[in-house]
């Protein structure tokens, strides 16, 4: 009888619970018992069990493109945990099952880390090989890329270490000559041909087999982790096609990276492995804990930064991040990094291609150019977000977006044709970042390191020291300037194409180019004006004063921070890339400056902007709600909306219930006491009602349209010839979250964010007035953004304002199912008017 006490105002009025047991046999075979059964005596009562006392398959699940109920999912998990703990002492088998349940979380993140590391290594190796295939092949071993092909050659020189007899360009294979205009044109043609082939194959596979495999995936993963359901987005087909097309897209030379999509790949692995464990398969909230750990593993293998991956998951993508998820994320990132290190895809015993180490200190006066790079990163981020969103919006609204294959081919052709003449745009973007990050030394043959008398370092700035740049360095700076403009333009049009496209690497490349240019400029300034007090005070004799590679690293972090608005995780990721704790302060200064400058033009990062562009139901916890609206201003029904659809607890027929479901599209319905009393009983979801009715019609006889539907613990009193009633008590949420109509929306929004609610009922003195859903809040926030006029003072919201369920005259309006507002509403109206007068007097 615990359910009775949980509902203090359920009117039974001679309901089934008042019938003495000795009278049951007299009621006839058609009489419905209070527990949902009935029968013609004790012999027939055994088969008249309440169907809904047992779990119904499908109840508690969610449709595609719906939001999960975090509170209900957590309650289900606690109930499952209590059940396991209560049974573990019964037998050794139950104890073993409890141990398996306890360790299943660690097992699933271990499998996710293993799969993520293995797939990342495979993608790195395949992308490098296909990228070098655009320039030539290795005759001795076709599976070797350019660098691996020349490892064992004894005929390479220091100046031309990338040339060896085993590696043949396409001009050498086709025309038989390595130099000359014909050779250049042939290599140009083959470079463009392979780029277009890879791009066409990538977009075709995505379009035909897995449309969800396009893009970065991080905006959708953020939305999924917030509780949204997107069926198939993390499925096996998406994983397979994303892995293949990511290799092809990177090899095509488009201005994109593989680091962002690696997070999507890792989350696909986590989602697939979670189906092997009932603890995560049957609970959407628990599954999202695995996805949070998987996103950490994805960043770990993308940048070789396990700690940065955990912080990225915590700061950027996760919506619900308990302490045990932090531990499991760290473990998943560790396992993924270990597997990738074991594969060693780049042959340098590092997890990324552009790992660098600096051994020279930075000086205090360098904070000024570092902050300037932060300003550039913030401006670039704000410009890129606006330009890319404008282009993506235009793509959605024009015919050009209907031909994704043509768009990808066009962008790939323009990229390949413009990129080939410039060596800094022709090479792989990761290799470009590596060259820009690397400090110049005796073993570097890059054009950026062509200084006079490199081996002479005995004095601070003697004539002919390594700080004196040659024309080769200035030529490289011009080429880098052109590459900077090219990367900025092409990245705007590339991000959002229907191929896997990450944003981390292009943003880092833009920042690294700008940083290297600034670094060389400061270096030459220090050389030609070494008697300035800044350089004379800080630059020591016999030491390198300026490290241009450090400026490239700081610029890369600043630009990536300007686009994504990451702070702590970004600094840690770059710190793990460099392996130097000494450069934390420059990185922090540049990243924070970048965020401040970017926030001055808009607080949204690129992922939040794409979430809003795609219309995903995502409540960003970073946004502050500063308006003075109330729950009654946002709830539905509005003033001109249809009346609120409600269900009564025990006086509806199955036909009336099906009519309400068929004539409305709401995802749930408040359940009230009766037509006369509007007091709230609970909330029933549309999907659960539909599944319960279908299950009852299959398994129970004599369920017809005239059958009484009830949500109470016991059946109501029915005539003897009435059809069998249908009990839906088990699908009723007895504790729906409610707020009063006077609750400020600031509090309502905070509740939705922190509890992950799907909907919230609005009441007044226990009487249902309306409902607020996550969609209503998002629409309200969008309306407030579009209206720049200031809102009226709070008291104005009370004056001559009636709830949406009132009519224009302030009197109750009709409801669905002929439910009228109770007489207590007139008292509420008088109280509201009295409150208006009090507020008006107080405002004077």
TrEMBL record:
Instruction: Locate the transmembrane regions by residue number.
Output: 103-123, 191-213, 233-254, 261-278, 290-314, 363-385, 405-424, 476-497, 509-530, 550-575
Output the InterPro entries linked to this UniProt entry.
CBS_dom, CBS_dom_sf, Cl-channel_core, ClC, ClC3
Q: Which GO terms describe its cellular component?
A: early endosome membrane; Golgi apparatus; late endosome membrane; lysosomal membrane; plasma membrane; synaptic vesicle
User: Molecular function (GO) terms listed?
Assistant: ATP binding; chloride:proton antiporter activity; voltage-gated chloride channel activity
Compartments reported by the entry: Cell membrane; Early endosome membrane; Late endosome membrane; Lysosome membrane
Has the keyword Glycoprotein been applied to this entry?
yes
- Domain CBS residue range list: 635-701, 732-790
List the keywords (alphabetical).
Antiport, ATP-binding, CBS domain, Cell membrane, Chloride, Endosome, Glycoprotein, Ion transport, Lysosome, Membrane, Nucleotide-binding, Repeat, Transmembrane, Transmembrane helix, Transport
- Cited function: Strongly outwardly rectifying, electrogenic H(+)/Cl(-)exchanger which mediates the exchange of chloride ions against protons. The CLC channel family contains both chloride channels and proton-coupled anion transporters that exchange chloride or another anion for protons. The presence of conserved gating glutamate residues is typical for family members that function as antiporters.
**Which protein family is it in?**
Belongs to the chloride channel (TC 2.A.49) family. ClC-3/CLCN3 subfamily.
PANTHER family hit by this protein:
CHLORIDE CHANNEL PROTEIN, H(+)_CL(-) EXCHANGE TRANSPORTER 3
The protein here is known as: Chloride channel protein
Name the source organism: Triplophysa tibetana
């Amino acid at each position: 009888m615990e359910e009775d006490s949980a509902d203090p105002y359920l009117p039974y009025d001679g309901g089934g619970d008042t019938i003495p047991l000795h009278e049951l046999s007299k009621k006839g075979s058609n009489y419905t018992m209070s527990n949902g059964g009935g029968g013609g005596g004790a012999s027939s009562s055994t088969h008249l069990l309440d169907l809904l006392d047992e779990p119904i398959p499908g109840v508690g699940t969610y449709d595609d493109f719906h939001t999960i109920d975090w509170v209900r999912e957590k309650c289900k998990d606690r109930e499952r945990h209590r059940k396991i703990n209560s049974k573990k002492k019964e037998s050794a088998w139950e104890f073993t099952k409890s141990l398996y349940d306890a360790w299943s979380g660690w097992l699933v993140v271990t499998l996710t880390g293993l799969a993520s590391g293995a797939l990342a290594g495979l993608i790195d190796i395949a992308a490098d090989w296909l990228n070098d295939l655009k320039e030539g092949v290795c005759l001795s071993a076709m599976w070797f890329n350019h660098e691996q092909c020349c490892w064992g050659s004894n005929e390479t020189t220091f100046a031309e270490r990338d040339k060896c007899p085993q590696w043949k360009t396409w001009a050498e294979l086709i025309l038989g000559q390595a130099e000359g205009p014909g050779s250049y044109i042939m290599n140009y043609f083959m470079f463009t041909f392979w780029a277009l082939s890879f791009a066409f194959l990538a977009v075709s596979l995505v379009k035909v087999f897995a449309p969800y495999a396009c893009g970065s995936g991080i905006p959708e993963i953020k939305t999924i982790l917030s509780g949204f359901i997107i069926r198939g987005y993390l499925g096996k087909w998406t994983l397979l096609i994303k892995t293949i097309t990511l290799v092809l897209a990177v090899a095509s030379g488009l201005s994109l990276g593989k680091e962002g999509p690696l997070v999507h790949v890792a989350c696909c692995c986590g989602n697939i492995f979670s189906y092997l464990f009932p603890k995560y398969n049957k609970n959407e909230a628990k599954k999202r804990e695995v996805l949070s750990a998987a996103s950490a593993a994805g960043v770990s293998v993308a940048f070789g930064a396990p700690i940065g991956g955990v912080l990225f998951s915590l700061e950027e993508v996760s919506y619900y991040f308990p302490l045990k998820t932090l531990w499991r994320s760290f473990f998943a990132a560790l396992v993924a990094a270990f597997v990738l290190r074991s594969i060693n895809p780049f042959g340098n015993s590092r997890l990324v291609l552009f790992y660098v180490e600096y051994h020279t200190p930075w000086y205090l006066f360098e904070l000024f150019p570092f902050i300037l790079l932060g300003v550039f990163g913030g401006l670039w981020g704000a410009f890129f977000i606006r330009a890319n969103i404008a282009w993506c919006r235009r793509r959605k609204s024009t015919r050009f977006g209907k031909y994704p294959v043509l768009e990808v081919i066009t962008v790939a052709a323009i990229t390949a044709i413009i990129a080939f003449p410039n060596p800094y745009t022709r090479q792989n973007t990761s290799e470009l970042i590596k060259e820009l990050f690397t400090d110049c030394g005796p073993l570097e043959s890059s054009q950026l390191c062509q200084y006079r008398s490199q081996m002479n370092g005995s004095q601070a700035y003697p004539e002919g020291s390594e700080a004196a740049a040659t024309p080769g360095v200035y030529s490289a700076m011009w080429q880098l300037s052109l590459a900077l403009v090219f990367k900025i333009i092409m990245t705007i049009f590339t991000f959002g194409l229907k191929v896997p496209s990450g944003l981390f690497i292009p943003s880092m490349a833009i920042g690294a180019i700008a940083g290297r240019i600034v670094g060389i400029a400061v270096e030459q300034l220090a050389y030609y004006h070494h008697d300035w007090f800044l350089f004379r005070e800080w630059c020591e004799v016999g030491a390198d004063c300026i490290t241009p590679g450090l400026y490239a690293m700081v610029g890369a972090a600043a630009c990536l921070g300007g686009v994504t608005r990451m702070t702590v995780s970004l600094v840690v990721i770059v710190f793990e890339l460099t392996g130097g704790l000494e450069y934390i302060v420059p990185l922090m200064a540049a990243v924070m400056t970048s965020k401040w400058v970017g926030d001055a033009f808009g607080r949204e990062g690129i992922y939040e902007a794409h979430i809003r562009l795609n219309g995903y139901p995502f409540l960003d916890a970073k946004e502050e709600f500063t308006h003075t609206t109330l729950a009654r201003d946002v709830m539905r029904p509005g003033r001109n909306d249809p009346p609120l659809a409600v269900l009564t607890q025990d006086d509806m027929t199955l036909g009336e219930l099906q009519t309400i479901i068929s004539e409305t599209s709401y995802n749930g319905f408040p359940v009230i006491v009766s037509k006369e009393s509007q007091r709230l009983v609970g909330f029933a979801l549309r999907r659960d009602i539909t599944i319960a009715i279908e299950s009852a019609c299959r398994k129970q006889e004599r369920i017809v349209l005239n059958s009484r539907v009830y949500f109470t613990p016991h059946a109501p009193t029915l005539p003897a010839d009435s059809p069998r009633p249908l009990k839906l008590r088990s699908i009723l949420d007895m504790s729906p979250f409610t707020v009063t109509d006077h609750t400020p929306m600031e509090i309502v929004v905070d509740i939705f964010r922190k509890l992950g609610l799907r909907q919230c009922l609005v009441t007044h003195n226990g009487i249902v007035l309306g409902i607020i859903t996550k969609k209503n809040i998002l629409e309200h926030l969008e309306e407030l953004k579009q209206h720049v006029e200031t809102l009226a003072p709070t008291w104005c919201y009370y004056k001559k304002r009636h709830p949406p369920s009132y009519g224009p005259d302030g009197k109750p309006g009709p409801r669905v199912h002929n439910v009228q507002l109770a007489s207590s509403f007139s008292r509420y109206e008088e109280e509201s008017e009295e409150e208006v007068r009090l507020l008006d007097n107080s405002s004077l």
